[in-house]
C-alpha cells in the first residue's frame, strides 16, 4: 500500500479504498499485493520507468481510465510531460495512430485537470 500511495497519491488511494465493497474487496487486495507489492516495488526499474511503460501499455490497450490515472500519477513518479509525449509518439508507431490520438486527448485532459486541481 505504501508503494501504491507513493505512485497514485493519498487522495486517489483513499477515494478508491472508500469505494471497496464485499464484491470487489478480494480483487482490490489482489491488485494491491500483485501490482504494488510484487511488481512496482521491485528494484529493477525506477518508478519513472514503470510509469512510462504503464502509460504506453494503457494507451496501446485502450484502457482509458487507467491511462488518465497514470498520467496524473506522473507528478509522483517523476515522468515528465516531454517523456510522456515521446511515449505516446512511440505508441502511435507501434500500436496505431488511433490509439495514440485518443491517448493524447486523454493526456491533455489529465494534465489540464492537474493544472486546475493539483494532487
TrEMBL record:
A Pfam short name: CMD
Protein name in UniProt: 4-carboxymuconolactone decarboxylase
Residues of the Carboxymuconolactone decarboxylase-like domain: 26-109
NCBIfam families: decarb_PcaC (TIGR02425)
EC number: 4.1.1.44
Ranges in coiled-coil conformation: none
Enzyme class: lyase
